Amino acid sequence: MxxxxxxxxxGAWLRRExxxxxxxxxxxxxxxxxxxxxxxxxxLQVISLDSIVGSVDRTRDFDRRFRxxxxxxxxxxxxxxxxxxxxxxxxxxxxxxxxxxxFVIDGHHRVSVAHAMNLRTIDAxxxxxxxxxxxxxxxxxxxxxxxxxxxxxxxRVPLTGSARAAIRLTDAWEYSELSEAVEAxxxxxxxxxxxxxxRATVASRWYAxxxxxxxxxxxxxxxxxxxxxxxxxxxxxxxxxxxxxAHRWDDEVITAIREQPRLPRRMGL
Length: 269
Prior knowledge:
Blueprint: H1 2-14, E1 25-26, H2 27-34, E2 36-48, E3 52-55, H3 74-85, E4 93-98, E5 101-106, H4 108-116, E6 121-131, H5 143-156, H6 161-166, H7 172-193, H8 199-220, H9 229-244, H10 251-258, H11 265-268
Parallel strand pairs: 1-3, 3-5, 4-6
Antiparallel strand pairs: 2-6, 4-5
Helix pairs in contact: 2-5, 3-4, 5-7, 7-8, 8-9, 9-10
Protein name: Chromosome partitioning protein ParB
């Protein structure tokens, strides 16, 4: 298992893969990014070994496939492996469940030996963690940054339902930029209407009165290619202000944007 871990690490370096591809996911960082709201004990269950992707406190001792990263645990590992070969049953491990992922509380060596024996499942006492955001889309440690910024965005712009699902960005920092844009739009709206609106109302009206109409115009103009609708929206509002110096939307604005060379959005800013 140690040799396999070292060869895997070398192979990842030769393929120039990101450093976090083989790193175990840290439970605390995942929960912090998603926003913890509660937990419930589910009791003893049979779980897939492939669903175990992280640890509560042993992220440096094993890699993503629970191969030991050092020889410190060799004695304990070998004793467990020998017991397994003799047909002795493993006691259940303890895990947290976040989405469809599992994080080991107790039983790291048992998981490692089970992988070495090519087992597919393992018994575990499961505690499910309930979070504000879905854990879907988390594969590597770098994905946590996007989740964390999305969670902060939704606290500032509390969209719900289909509107919430529609806003998707691949660059984590763009969630911050979009929240600033929504808040600025809400401020202008309150000035125009001479009234105070709470965040939920601003978010709902921005989506219905600004985002949807703008995205519809941009799509009809053939200006959405590989990016998401939210990424296209961010690009056109930056280009609109750079070219027109106004916050209005009409055919003139769309025409002016279409005639410009398509530069990276940050250069446009």
